[in-house]
Every structure is written in C-alpha cells, then in structure tokens.
C-alpha cells in the first residue's frame, strides 16, 4: 500500500481555543480557509449546509452554538450571521433534510440535539422557525440520555425522513436510536422510535454521525476506537455492522464526518482527526471492489483547531466554491469555509 503523506499547503495564524485553554498553534502546513465566519457568543460545535432551491447564492450554513444559552445560527456564504433561532439549552450537533411533509407541504428542516432538555429540535428553513411544539423527547426511559450527535436519513423509496440520534453514553448494540419524523396532524413535527442499534467500544462516546442517502448507509465515530458503518433503512431489519475502519489512523478522537459526492456512488468520506487538526480521507465507494473496505487516501491539515463537526457539498455555489464547499468548526467560536478544489488538489497529490 502506498504510504500516505500529509500535504504541505499554506501557513495560517493562531486560533484561540474557546474552551478556555491556552492558544493552540495551527499547523504550519495547514490549508487556509476561504472564509472564516463571524464569531458566535459561546462555543461552535457542528455545521450543516442548506442549498437554496432557486438561487444557490442564497444558500446558508447552519451551525450550533453549544451553551445553556445557545442556539442555531444561520450564516451566509460570506460567513456573516443572518439569524439566530430561539434560545436552546446546549444544542450539540445539527443536520439538514429536504422535503418533510407538514400540512401537505414540503418543508426543509434543520434538526439539532438539545442536550440539557433531552430533546431533538426541528426548525423550518431558511427562517429557523421552530416547528416541533417545544421539542421531541429522546431516549425516554433510559438512565443516560444526553443527546449529542444527529444525522438525518431520507429514504429514497418514499421520502420519509428519519433522525439517527447518539448520546453521551449508552449500551453497545443499542447506543443509537432512530426516529421517524412526521406531521403531528396540527402542523408540528413529532418523532417515533423505529429502531435501536449500534455497537460501542466503551472508550469515550459517539457524537459524529453522517448518512449517505444514495447508498442507504450511516457512519458514526466511536471515539478513540474507529468509524462504524450500518444500513440506514430501519425497515431492512438489519443491525449488523457492515464495516469498522480508521482504527489506527487517528491521534486520539475520531470526530466530525462529511461525505463528498463525486457521483451517485463515488466520492470521499472525511473525518476529523481532532487532536491532530487534520482530516482523514477515505474512499466513499470502498476499494478493490469491496464497498466495505476503506483504506486511508490522504490526511489533510486544516486551519481548524480541535474540530468537532464538518459538512460538505458538491454543488457549485459560485465564486471560490465552483466545485463545492467544505465547512468545519474550529475552536475560537467560528466555522471555516474551504473551496473543495483546494481539498481535492491535496487528495490528488497524496495519491501520486
């Protein structure tokens, strides 16, 4: 196997760790962001990208501000804050889905975990208005609840939308709970448990979750252990683990996951190597004819510090983002936007 080398890019500045620790240096070979967002009041954690259906220049980044007086924030493509949601008690991760049917109309939604209230919260896009009647309780009846990670799966066959939710701690085999989101009948969203699944090493926690709708699979980071893969469709009644990879590639924590789609089946899985301030890149389609084999393709150093969450799109958003945008959280209360082209160049260089 070809040795993977971290690729030298450009020098970035120092970024302040918002958790209160001393200044942490950005790596000297870190990829420089195209845009750094305005700072949030407390602690950024996870972003998700919403594509405007009529004018891509009006697309937004939705990010969490993780605090007892936090919330969801909408940013434009220049990194300017557009709006904040109602106050939320420690929103952790966020994901976006298109076309949830409410009152007979399709609505795009951002769904976030509200950790201190043991709920998930549903917001209409792009206005960030709550449509969940105060939230959907999760992990009811469990001793450990504390919802953290979330990813949304849209089933191609019927366009039903499901939330896959992780927590601070849970039993192996049923660590993740999956909820079907639907109309309550009065114009608000409810969630019903349809599945419990997911192995857990017990080493730390499961926070980062990502769904590949086209392949019908879900990936999640078992921190300090590896990246696990399962089927996303609850109706298949298959809770067998499909793959476990990245076990020897990380300095410590496996964190945010983003999936870049080059086609319906090909692309890249990017995972935050949190304490190394890099992203590890794996082939979305697998390798050697095996869709569950994931060799490391490249390690990309970025300007982010201790990144918890990331997202990516292949949509041409104009300007520097002709082939898409990659966004990642950074300590210092910001999100960093990168041109996909700059990341692709480093992946290509690592393959040579």
UniProtKB/TrEMBL annotation:
Signal peptide: none annotated. InterPro entries: 6-blade_b-propeller_TolB-like (IPR011042), B-propeller_Phytase (IPR003431). Gene3D superfamilies: TolB, C-terminal domain. Residues 16-347 form the BPP domain. This is 3-phytase. It comes from Flavobacterium pokkalii. The lineage of its organism: Bacteria, Pseudomonadati, Bacteroidota, Flavobacteriia, Flavobacteriales.
């Amino acid at each position: 196997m070809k040795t993977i080398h971290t690729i030298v890019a450009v020098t970035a500045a120092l970024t302040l760790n918002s958790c209160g620790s001393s200044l942490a240096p950005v790596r000297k070979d870190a990829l420089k962001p195209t845009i750094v967002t305005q700072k949030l009041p407390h602690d950024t954690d996870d972003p998700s990208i919403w594509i405007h259906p009529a004018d891509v220049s009006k697309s937004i980044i939705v990010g969490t501000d993780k605090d007892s007086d936090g919330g969801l924030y909408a940013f434009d493509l220049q990194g300017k804050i557009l709006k904040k949601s109602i106050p939320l008690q420690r929103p952790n991760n966020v994901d976006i889905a298109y076309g949830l049917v409410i009152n007979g109309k399709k609505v795009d939604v951002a769904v976030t975990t509200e950790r201190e209230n043991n709920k998930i919260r549903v917001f209409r896009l792009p206005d960030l208005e709550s449509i969940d009647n105060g939230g959907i309780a999760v992990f009811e009846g469990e001793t450990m609840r504390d919802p953290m990670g979330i990813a949304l799966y849209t089933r191609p066959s019927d366009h039903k939308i499901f939330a896959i939710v992780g927590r601070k701690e849970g039993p192996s085999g049923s660590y993740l709970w999956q909820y079907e989101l639907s109309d309550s009948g009065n114009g608000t969203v409810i969630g019903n448990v349809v599945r419990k699944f997911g192995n857990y090493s017990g080493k730390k926690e499961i926070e980062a979750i990502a769904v590949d709708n086209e392949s019908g699979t879900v990936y999640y980071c078992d921190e300090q252990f590896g990246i696990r893969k399962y089927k996303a469709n609850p109706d298949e009644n298959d809770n067998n683990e499909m793959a476990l990879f990245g076990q020897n590639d990380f300095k410590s924590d496996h964190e945010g996951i983003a999936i870049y789609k080059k086609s319906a089946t090909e692309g890249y899985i990017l995972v935050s190597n949190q304490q190394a301030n890099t992203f590890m890149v794996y082939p979305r389609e697998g390798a050697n004819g095996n869709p569950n084999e994931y060799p490391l393709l490249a390690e990309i150093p970025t300007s982010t510090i201790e990144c918890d969450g990331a997202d990516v799109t292949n949509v041409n958003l104009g300007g520097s983002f002709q082939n898409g945008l990659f966004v990642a959280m950074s300590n210092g209360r910001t999100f960093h936007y990168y041109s996909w082209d700059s990341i692709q160049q480093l992946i290509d260089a690592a393959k040579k």
